[in-house]
Design goal:
single chain; about 280 residues; alpha+beta; 7-stranded antiparallel β-sheet; 4-stranded antiparallel β-sheet; 7 helices; about 20% strand
């Protein structure tokens, strides 16, 4: 498969340190067109989300796919049909405008890249937001562990594996993983830190030899940017929220929308407490 890159990184138009930008301010910058690049490193400590928007007639099968595959598809929010809002995830949050880039599929594996959804929005669309591994990166860097893609100003590399997901209705496909490389002692610590964030994919699914999970060339990711690998580094692979995009390509609903890989929805939910606050909101 040829590597598919995400939309190019922006010039980081949001002023100040990107890690301290408030989620609402970042969403407003995205909505106004002042930020179009990756959201990795932005709004540290807040939960970021992958996007999958499906017609209501296919929503039950897609929900089943998420329930059967909780590692790549940790569900953090679902909209009412036709609504672009999910109040539990943020104030003044509009799914149609608040991600830096979207992919629109119309009954095929091909897609159109757009910067907002105003022209394609329909009253029968149901939005699913799935947790993202960007959400635990602040915990890793706060512990003094370097993340090479952040230091290099790059999107995280992502790869299609030979690991099959559990199918649901028409939705099926391979697991996609994101990769971060560490020296061995830091790799162990990164596993422990990420395991605390189950709504952000939790602990990794694989460490070491990429060929064992079907990755032929680690320097040629299927999504994102080329990795930075230092001598002695161990590649560590986490389940990735681009996985549903592969399932959507196979299911081919008449309309489906996803995020551009690495260009996420940044929510107002604190990542460390997300499992508890979101559950409390959903059951209140």
């Amino acid at each position: 498969m040829n590597a598919e890159k995400s939309a190019s990184c922006s010039s980081r138009d949001v002023k100040g340190s990107i890690s301290t930008v408030k989620p609402l301010d970042l969403r407003h910058a995205i909505r106004s067109g002042n930020h179009r690049g990756t959201t990795t490193g932005y709004s540290a400590g807040y939960l970021q989300g992958n996007l999958a928007i499906i017609p209501q007639k296919d929503a039950a099968d897609f929900l089943s796919f998420c329930m059967k595959n909780p590692k790549p598809c940790p569900l953090i929010g679902v909209s009412e049909p036709g609504s672009p809002h999910i109040p539990a995830l943020g104030a003044d949050l509009d799914i149609r405008t608040d991600l830096p880039g979207y992919r629109v599929f119309r009954g095929s594996r091909d897609y159109q890249s757009v910067t907002d959804l105003n022209a394609v929005w329909r009253d029968d669309l149901v939005t699913f937001v799935l947790g993202c591994s960007f959400s635990f990166e602040a915990a890793i860097t706060s512990a003094g562990i370097a993340l090479h893609h952040l230091d290099a100003g790059r999107n995280v590399p992502m790869y299609v594996t030979n690991i099959a997901t559990s199918p649901a209705g028409r939705f099926h496909g391979p697991l996609v993983v994101s990769m971060r490389a560490f020296k061995p002692s830091d790799a162990i610590r990164a596993v422990l830190y990420s395991d605390r964030y189950r709504l952000a994919h939790g602990a990794p699914v694989h460490l070491g030899d990429p060929s064992a999970i079907g990755i032929a060339d680690i320097m040629k990711p299927d999504f994102g940017d080329e990795p930075v690998l230092n001598d002695g580094d161990i590649p560590v692979f986490w389940a990735c929220g681009v996985t549903p995009q592969m399932a959507i390509r196979n299911a081919q609903p008449d309309l489906a929308i996803t995020h551009e890989p690495g260009l996420m929805l940044v929510t107002d939910v604190l990542a460390e407490a997300a499992e508890f606050t979101l559950h409390a909101t959903q059951t209140a």
